[in-house]
């Protein structure tokens, strides 16, 4: 708070000088004032040579000056007798240390506000909700605190909203579902709590990243066009069956939550899905039916650290594009299917089955000399010669194996 006051006072002192230098400028004077206030709220010691803000030299006109001045600022095209307005602020990530001025709300023609990877602190100013033409708000990788401004719902033209990796908290405001133009929403790496609001009305949304927050409760309905869904590192619960309808999904990360029940075949068989990480949850079954040809594009399946039991799914070998498998730290029992051996030789590049209760001998390909696969089958109840790299780490004790099998 004290520093914010300091910002305002500082701007006030400079005002008369500024009005003089900009008297004949082509840029709207209010806009020049905002740019100056923005720079004045940054610790000058953090504005390094060759950074964008260093080029903001107010002896020039922001919209008129060409060359290397006012980097990161875009304006409307000059017209006779109409002052130019600032339309974009797209700062470099140069670790600028300071606050975002309340005056930002005066840049009413602003469509892009991009301040990522700096050291902005304090709240997102309430006045941001006056920027009704904003299509991109990207303030990721800063130290913003608090919640979204109260009237944030007025920014109905937003297409990209990225506030990831800040210190924001509180519930995710349900009004986000009114942002019908939104295609990218990243709220990851904050301290948001509560349920995930129903976003299925945000039908254009293609990227949703809510990872590393404190969100809990069951999954809501998601919009149909999602390509990337990242919900890892939360406290989400319930079944994941709603995701079986996401026909366009390519990347799915549900890891490190408290999801339970089955990992349904319907998720692995989504037509576009290439990456699935459901590790570190409480799933008990992995459903893999037989695939015929190119039904799935799945390349990576990580289901490590669950409570998966029963035999290893033989049908995994019918997933044509699969190269990377992690089923470690589960409760699988029985033998390693012979079919896995062929895949090891042909196409699989990474296989982790460590920390289960698998028994018996290895398929012959596992013991071949020119074994190039990454992975581990240690900490099972296998006959696993330590000359084989995959066996390094050893097996469980006889007692452990007896107790489980
Ligand atoms: C600019 O914004 C500040 C803070 O929101 C406000 O007090 C001031 O009246 C605005 N100036 C103009 C010219 O709109
Ligand atoms: C899956 O998620 C876990 C936990 O978030 C992470 O440690 C692991 O690296 C991920 N696996 C892959 C293949 O990305
Ligand atoms: C899956 O494999 C087939 C050939 O087996 C290949 O044509 C296709 O491009 C692969 N898909 C992906 C997403 O890599």
Automatic annotation (TrEMBL):
The keyword Iron-sulfur is assigned to this record: no
A single GO cellular-component term on record: membrane
Transmembrane segments: none
UniProt keyword annotations, A-Z: Leucine-rich repeat, Membrane, Repeat, Signal
Subcellular location: Membrane
InterPro entries: Leu-rich_rpt, LRR_dom_sf, RLP29
Principal location class: membrane
Leader peptide range in chain numbering: 1-25
This protein's name: Uncharacterized protein
Lineage start: Eukaryota, Viridiplantae, Streptophyta, Embryophyta, Tracheophyta
């Amino acid at each position: 708070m004290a520093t914010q006051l300091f910002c305002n006072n500082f701007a006030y002192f400079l005002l008369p000088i500024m009005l003089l230098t900009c008297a004949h400028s082509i840029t709207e004077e209010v806009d020049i004032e905002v740019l100056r206030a923005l720079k004045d709220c940054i610790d000058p010691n953090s504005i390094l040579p060759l950074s964008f803000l260093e080029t903001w030299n107010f002896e020039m006109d922001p919209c008129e000056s060409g060359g290397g001045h006012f980097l990161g600022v875009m304006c409307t095209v000059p017209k006779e007798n109409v002052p130019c307005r600032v339309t974009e602020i797209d700062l470099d990530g140069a670790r600028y240390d300071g606050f975002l001025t309340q005056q930002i709300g005066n840049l009413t023609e602003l469509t892009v506000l991009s301040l990522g990877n700096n050291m902005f602190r304090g709240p997102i100013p309430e006045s941001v909700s006056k920027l009704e033409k904003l299509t991109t708000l990207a303030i990721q990788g800063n130290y913003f605190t608090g919640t979204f401004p109260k009237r944030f719902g007025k920014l109905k033209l937003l297409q990209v909203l990225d506030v990831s990796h800040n210190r924001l908290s509180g519930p995710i405001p349900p009004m986000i579902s009114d942002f019908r133009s939104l295609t990218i929403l990243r709220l990851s790496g904050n301290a948001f709590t509560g349920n995930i609001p129903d976003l299925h009305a945000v039908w254009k949304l293609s990227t949703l990243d809510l990872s590393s927050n404190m969100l809990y409760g069951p999954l809501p309905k998601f919009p149909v066009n999602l390509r990337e869904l990242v919900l890892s590192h939360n406290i989400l619960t319930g079944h994941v069956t709603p995701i079986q309808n996401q026909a366009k999904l390519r990347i799915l990360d549900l890891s490190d939550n408290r999801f339970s029940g089955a990992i349904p075949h319907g998720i692995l068989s989504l037509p576009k899905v290439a990456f699935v990480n459901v590790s570190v949850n409480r799933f008990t079954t992995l459903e893999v039916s037989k695939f015929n040809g190119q039904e799935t594009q799945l390349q990576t399946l990580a289901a490590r650290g669950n409570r998966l039991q029963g035999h290893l799914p033989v049908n995994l070998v019918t997933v044509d594009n699969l190269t990377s498998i992690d089923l470690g730290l589960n409760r699988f029992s029985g033998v390693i299917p012979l079919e896995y051996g062929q895949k090891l030789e042909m196409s699989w590049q990474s296989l982790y089955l460590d920390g289960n209760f698998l028994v018996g001998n290895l398929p012959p390909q596992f013991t071949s000399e020119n074994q190039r696969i990454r992975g581990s089958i240690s900490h099972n109840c296998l006959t696993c010669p330590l000359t084989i790299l995959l066996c390094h780490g050893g097996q469980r004790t006889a007692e452990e194996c007896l107790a489980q099998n």
